[in-house]
Amino acid sequence: MTYDVSRIRAAYPALADGHAYLDGAAGTQVPTAVIDAIADAYRTGIGNTGGAFAASRRSDAIVAECRAAVADLVGGQAEGVVLGPNMTTLTYRVAATLAKNWGPGDEVLLTRLDHDANVRPWVQAAERAGATVRWADVDTKTGELDVEQYRQLVTERTRLVAVTAASNVLGTKPDVAAISGIAHEAGALVYVDGVHATPHGPIDVTALGADFYATSAYKWSGPHIGAVIADPALLETLRPDKLASSDDTVPDRFEWGTPAFADLAGVTAAVEHLAGLDDEATGTRRERLLTSMAAVEAHEQGLLRRMLDGLRGVTLYGDAADRTATVYFNVPGRTPEQVAQHLASRQVNVWNGHNYAWEVTAALGIRDGGSAVRAGAVHYNDTDDVDRLLAALLEITQM
Questions:
Q1: Which residues pair with 315 in a beta bridge?
Q2: Which backbone phi and psi does 172 adopt, to 5 degrees?
Q3: Under 8 Å CB-to-CB from 152, ≥6 apart: which residues?
Q4: For 328, which of 3, 36, 189, 317 could close a Cys bridge (C-beta 3.0–4.6 Å)?
């Protein structure tokens, strides 16, 4: 395994501004290859799909290549990759479609750990259908999502289990495979929010047991495009609302309106970039992705240990055994906004607030007080970024 973070950082023009970008959990910077792919699509000429002329055929190819790239990233099938503007929009679309078959007595099981984009669409869809919402609770001390509770919560009336593959604030990585196994035994579908998990290590949707897996390219150095990956055979059974005149094939029937073709070219470039993060990665693109993302995970875990070892004078939330390189904390006597502003004055980029982790910040008892500060490492961060965070925090804790 060869992971040259200096080489990787050099591919990102934005990193030259001298800031420590520890805000990747809200969206990453993009490498030159992605910028060029988007620009080249416009320079070359694109048209809407399905036409007889060359520009239209280029768009057809861009869409097909994007589906194949996303499938390689997560271990899915290209024919089951639904593309859209973002994960939230797509989740609302899937929720509305599935809920057509729900009614009184049916149950939907959610978690207090999830980003609200994997909560509110299901809550609202269940309300419209007359279905019941049940909740899996998070351990507020450890940030863990106990699997055993699912053995009591999942029943023969459970129609859907929605769960995150990684918390976007605590970093917790639940045992999704075990949860999926319990859900499938009862005949329920499993919708996995992989937005925060995908950038931080290898993903295999089959191993996770995900019937639907959602991800967002802008969290892994791509443009603002979302995707939901499912088995094409499952998608064939679903009838989303759509225009009468639009394509009824899978996965097209789930995609509304004209896509952002140039951005889709950027998604493919981002996947190719990820596949080359480990200098020694070889084989198919899927194989190179597995090697490179394993190297990313090892690199980030080293940064996480450095952060945790160096954090002093803060209240840290979550201590899961398996987690991404994401820390969520408060500084006693300071509001989260004050801490973030101080860090910004030292050119250290972090987020403050609930970060759409609406349920877990309430469970932690911090939502009404501004929640907390979030810092997180992605593949282009280095030890200098972490050390600058720790130094700036030391300043404010001693003020």
A1: 330
A2: -55, 130
A3: none
A4: 317
Sign for the CA dihedral angle at 125, 169, 14, 297 comes to: negative
CA distance 175 to 136: 13
Query: How far apart are the C-alpha atoms of 249 and 236, rounded to whole Å?
Result: 8
18, 175, 198 from 381: Cα distances, Å: 12, 27, 16
Q: Among 389, 327, 326, which residue's Cα sits nearest to residue 197?
A: 326
Domain 5-31+284-397's class? alpha beta
Neighbours of 231 (CB within 10 A): 18
pLDDT at site 75: 98
Give the C-alpha separation, 212 to 346, whole Å: 41
pLDDT tens digits along 146-190: 999 999 999 999 999 999 999 999 999 999 999 999 999 999 999
Domain with CATH 3.90.1150.10 in the chain: 5-31+284-397
Predicted pLDDT of residue 399: 81
263 band by pLDDT with thresholds 50, 70 and 90: very high
DSSP string, 47-73: --TT-SSHHHHHHHHHHHHHHHHHHHH
Whether the bond into 251 is cis, omega within 30 of 0 = yes
Portions of the chain given CATH number 3.40.640.10: 35-272
Q: Is 349 left (phi over 0), alpha (psi -120 to 50) or beta?
A: beta
Tokens of 165: 């593959």
The letter for the amino acid at 309 is D
Nearest alpha-carbon partner for 72 in 210, 300, 268, 340 = 268
The phi-psi region of residue 133 (left if phi > 0; otherwise alpha if psi is between -120 and 50; otherwise beta) is: beta
Amino acid at 337: E
Q: Say yes or no to pLDDT of 19 above 90.
A: yes
What is the third-level CATH fold of 35-272? Aspartate Aminotransferase; domain 2 (3.40.640)
